[in-house]
């Protein structure tokens, strides 16, 4: 199944399905508390097909006030920050991916429902509900016949929700934000880079901040949920076979329908595991640099995770900042050239890009001497040699020519400048 990013610029017409009761549950309230005794597997004695898994690099503060439902995956360097007066719950089959932040300490608690996707670098802050409640879908979505299955929510790369409510069957696109006091109702998605600050902006696509949910969005979410449930299960199995195998430079868990084999990363042609390394380099990753040179040139909290799509081929690194993330959709890969510089929090995400219908999808490629700004995003794109992508900009579904310059805070979508990052 080909998956599309929740960032379409047009309001595609869509069909309303029946929302299953599980999607309305305030999931996770009686779940597992990820205290040290319940990490990385939560609960520690759970069967693999029901356990939740937290990467050992994930940071949990106030774990007794955090509750996880079944089959939750928490990725490398994610942060779950709770307190007695500000608990966090995450419902079954949800995930908090690499470098995600849930920080409830400035509010009264964060509640994440069932089947919620918190993608790389996204954040939920203060007092917030994500995927807990639902309202009737808008007539445009009902008339289009969107089938919503069991309901879901998708928060895309670098998005943020602060002191706000995100209902079931909605989403927040890359580098977009929902501001305090706003409710994003079922059937609406915030467009890339938009800052929704009023209820009117959240409710009316004509104001240019949101669009209607479509069937492609729903199918994308189903695929992501399936992958992360499988990762929770297989990382649990891997940990139980060898606790060191889920740390540092190491194998991917394999044994899934999207990534069957376990592979080790290689540095300058040499496969190796280094469980004590401060960053997470996972699976079929081919790095041109010897390990010592790579380690010297990269920052902290870096996650290069080839446990879904593979392989990743990464040329000689000029400099890689903190919090950089590599990942790829199933059956896609990433190729990056030499002398690339990565700003703090940059995300390179593999995914196919359709150039001609009926032809194979173009994979994600970053050329030589490219400069990726802090918190920038590259997804389903080809970036030409010597190109520069500014801080907090996203290039999605685009072939960027040699030497191109994308200014800071700019969204480039399907080959066109879509708009600016408004916050």
Automatic annotation (TrEMBL):
Keyword Hydrolase among record annotations: no
Keyword Cell inner membrane: no
Gene3D superfamilies the record matches: Hexapeptide repeat proteins (2.160.10.10)
Keyword field: Signal
Name of the protein described by the UniProt record: Carbonic anhydrase/acetyltransferase-like protein (Isoleucine patch superfamily)
Signal peptide location: 1-25
């Amino acid at each position: 199944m080909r998956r599309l990013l929740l960032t379409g610029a047009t309001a595609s017409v869509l069909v309303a399905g029946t929302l299953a009761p599980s999607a309305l549950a305030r999931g996770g309230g009686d779940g597992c508390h990820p205290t040290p005794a319940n990490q990385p597997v939560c609960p520690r004695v759970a069967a693999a097909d029901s356990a939740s898994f937290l990467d050992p690099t994930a940071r949990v503060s106030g774990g007794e006030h955090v509750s996880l439902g079944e089959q939750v995956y928490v990725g490398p360097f994610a942060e779950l920050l709770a307190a007695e007066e500000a608990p966090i719950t995450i419902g079954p089959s949800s995930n908090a991916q690499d470098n995600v932040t849930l920080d409830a300490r400035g509010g009264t608690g964060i509640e994440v429902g069932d089947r919620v996707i918190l993608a790389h670098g996204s954040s939920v802050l203060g007092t917030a509900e994500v995927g807990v409640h639902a309202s009737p879908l808008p007539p445009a979505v009902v008339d289009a016949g969107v089938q919503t299955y069991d309901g879901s929510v998708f928060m895309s790369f670098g998005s943020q929700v602060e002191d706000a409510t995100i209902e079931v069957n909605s989403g927040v696109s890359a580098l977009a934000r929902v501001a305090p006091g706003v409710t994003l109702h079922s059937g609406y998605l915030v467009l890339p880079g938009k800052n929704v600050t009023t209820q009117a902006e959240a409710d009316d696509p004509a104001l240019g901040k949101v669009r209607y949910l479509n069937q492609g969005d729903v199918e994308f979410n189903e695929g992501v949920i399936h992958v992360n449930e499988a990762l929770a299960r297989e990382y649990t199995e891997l940990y139980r076979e060898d606790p060191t195998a889920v740390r540092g430079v190491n194998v991917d868990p394999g044994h899934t329908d999207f990534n069957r084999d376990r592979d080790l990363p290689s540095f300058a042609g040499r496969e190796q595991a280094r469980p004590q390394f401060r960053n997470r380099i996972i699976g079929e990753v081919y790095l041109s640099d010897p390990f010592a040179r790579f380690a010297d040139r990269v920052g902290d909290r870096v996650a290069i995770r080839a446990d879904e799509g593979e392989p990743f081929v990464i040329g000689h690194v000029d400099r890689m900042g903190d919090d950089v993330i590599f990942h790829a959709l199933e059956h896609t890969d990433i190729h990056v050239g030499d002398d690339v510089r990565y700003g703090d929090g940059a995300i390179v995400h593999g995914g196919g890009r359709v150039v001609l219908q009926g032809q194979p999808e173009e994979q994600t490629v970053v050329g030589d001497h490219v400069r990726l700004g802090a918190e920038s995003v590259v997804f389903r794109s080809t970036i030409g040699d010597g190109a520069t992508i500014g801080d907090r900009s996203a290039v999605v579904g685009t072939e960027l020519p040699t030497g191109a310059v994308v200014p800071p805070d700019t969204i480039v979508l399907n080959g066109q400048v879509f708009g600016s990052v408004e916050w």
